[in-house]
Inverse folding.
């Protein structure tokens, strides 16, 4: 993934001046040793300059970790900690911060060796709120060296997403298609998140595409595509155009990313795209996603934003799918019931025309876009990557700005079942516990669009923390609530 930041967390230990400094020194060393033993040393940096007891120490520590190239901060309470200086660390650090605290080691050293960081964490959290400072605090932030090392490791994907957003540019080619108001949302929240957006017309893209006609790099791109598709190369006649289009997008990114380090694309694929370009861009979108450059369909700006966050959290390819159709009853009865612990309403099919990376498909082949071909010549609808999505754990999620410019999101963990879809496009049979209720009381009640981002694996914990950190209010983060836990809008007598 060359479109994501590398996280380096500076570990700064703090100490209250009426507690032994040696507690924080020794506990910091033990923490760093535990992390290196479990996870290596690539993600962390131990600040050796000082144990922070004062504001002057705070400045010295910040200068040191900045010089070391740290883009994330871990404030480690080796003992009670100085509530002012330790929170100023987070205030003045230009990046995401977390707070963890040391647990007491042994009953045999609870006089001179007692640190009281359990108490100090309460004061730290109080001061963070007083100063309106954002910081990640784990579910249970007090632990042994090994436990705190695990907490820091869990912070890595959260920090990667937050750092990435601050240097992200979304490039869109629009406007959105007719009857796709669902993909429209105010861009003000992008700026609130520190994300830049460059909005372009399809005509700009078409001009750039035509300028790439005969590009000498096209044959090499075609060869890459042939190797990826293998026996699935059912439309070899279209590969040179797709290669031309891929080079157009990659060159556009390099020419237009400006001062930003990371890019995501909100692309267009219809209604005029096919007839003018002569193909559909789905396969190219899938390839860019495989490079770590998310591309959403139908100019879905918050869709590609969601994809980028999931890419950063999972450090893996994501996709964007329609929450598309119900599973037929006979399919449920034959292939799911009594084989998996899901009701019929827990299941649905996630589908899109062909934008899912080949690495996330059980099998794939290049085909034409069947829906578009119902009203257009088949030859201009080639370019989709079809196949069943690989079975396994997934997280379905989305970050969205509402029409009144409020940031909201949802997260639901589930799986793709090993059930043949017997359908077309990039598609899978999905199962999410209590999906029926989630569909009604989060997706419908919350006015979410039909597009949802899919991360491969269970990443709900990290995504939830990212949503919290970037400012989504807690009651605006929907999730698939278990049975017996009523949604606000759920009829208790239903």
């Amino acid at each position: 993934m060359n479109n994501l930041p590398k996280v380096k967390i500076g570990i700064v230990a703090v100490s209250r001046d009426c507690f032994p400094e040696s507690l924080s020194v020794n506990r910091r060393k033990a923490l760093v040793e535990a992390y290196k033993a479990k996870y290596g040393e690539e993600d962390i940096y131990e600040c050796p300059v000082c144990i922070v007891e004062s504001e002057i120490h705070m400045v010295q520590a910040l200068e040191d970790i900045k010089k070391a190239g740290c883009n994330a901060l871990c404030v480690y309470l080796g003992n009670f900690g100085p509530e002012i200086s330790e929170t100023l660390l987070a205030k003045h650090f230009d990046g995401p911060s977390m707070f963890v605290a040391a647990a007491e080691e042994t009953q045999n050293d609870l006089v001179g060796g007692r640190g009281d960081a359990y108490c100090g964490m309460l004061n730290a959290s109080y001061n963070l709120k007083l100063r309106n400072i954002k910081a990640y605090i784990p579910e249970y932030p007090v632990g042994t060296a090994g436990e705190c090392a695990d907490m820091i490791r869990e912070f890595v994907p959260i920090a990667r997403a937050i750092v990435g957003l601050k240097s992200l540019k979304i490039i869109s080619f629009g406007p959105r298609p007719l009857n796709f108001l669902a993909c429209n949302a105010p861009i003000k929240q992008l700026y609130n998140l520190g994300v830049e957006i460059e909005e372009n017309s399809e005509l700009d893209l078409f001009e750039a595409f035509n300028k790439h006609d005969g590009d000498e790099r096209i044959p090499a791109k075609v060869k890459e595509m042939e190797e990826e598709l293998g026996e699935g190369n059912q439309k070899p006649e279209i590969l040179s155009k797709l290669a031309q289009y891929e080079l157009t997008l990659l060159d556009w990114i390099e020419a237009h990313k400006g001062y930003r380090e990371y890019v995501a694309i909100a692309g267009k694929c219809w209604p005029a795209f096919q007839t003018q370009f002569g193909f559909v861009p789905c396969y190219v979108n899938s390839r860019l996603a495989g490079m770590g450059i998310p591309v959403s369909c139908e100019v879905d700006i918050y869709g590609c934003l969601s994809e980028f966050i999931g890419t950063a959290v999972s450090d893996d390819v994501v996709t964007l799918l329609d929450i598309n159709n119900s599973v037929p009853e006979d399919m449920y009865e034959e292939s799911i019931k009594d084989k998996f612990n899901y009701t019929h309403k827990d299941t649905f099919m996630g589908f899109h025309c062909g934008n899912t990376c080949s690495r996330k498909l059980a099998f794939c082949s290049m085909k034409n876009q069947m829906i578009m071909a119902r009203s257009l010549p088949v030859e201009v609808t080639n370019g989709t990557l079809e196949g069943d999505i690989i079975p396994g754990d997934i997280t379905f999620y989305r970050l969205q700005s509402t029409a009144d410019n409020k940031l909201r999101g949802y997260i639901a963990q589930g799986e793709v079942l090993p059930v043949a879809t017997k359908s077309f496009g990039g598609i899978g049979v999905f199962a999410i516990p209590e999906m029926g209720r989630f569909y009604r009381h989060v997706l419908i009640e919350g006015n979410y669009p039909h597009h949802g981002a899919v991360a491969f694996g269970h990443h709900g914990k990290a995504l939830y923390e990212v949503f919290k950190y970037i400012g989504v209010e807690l009651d605006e983060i929907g999730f698939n609530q278990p049975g017996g836990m009523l949604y606000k809008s759920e009829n208790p007598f239903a």
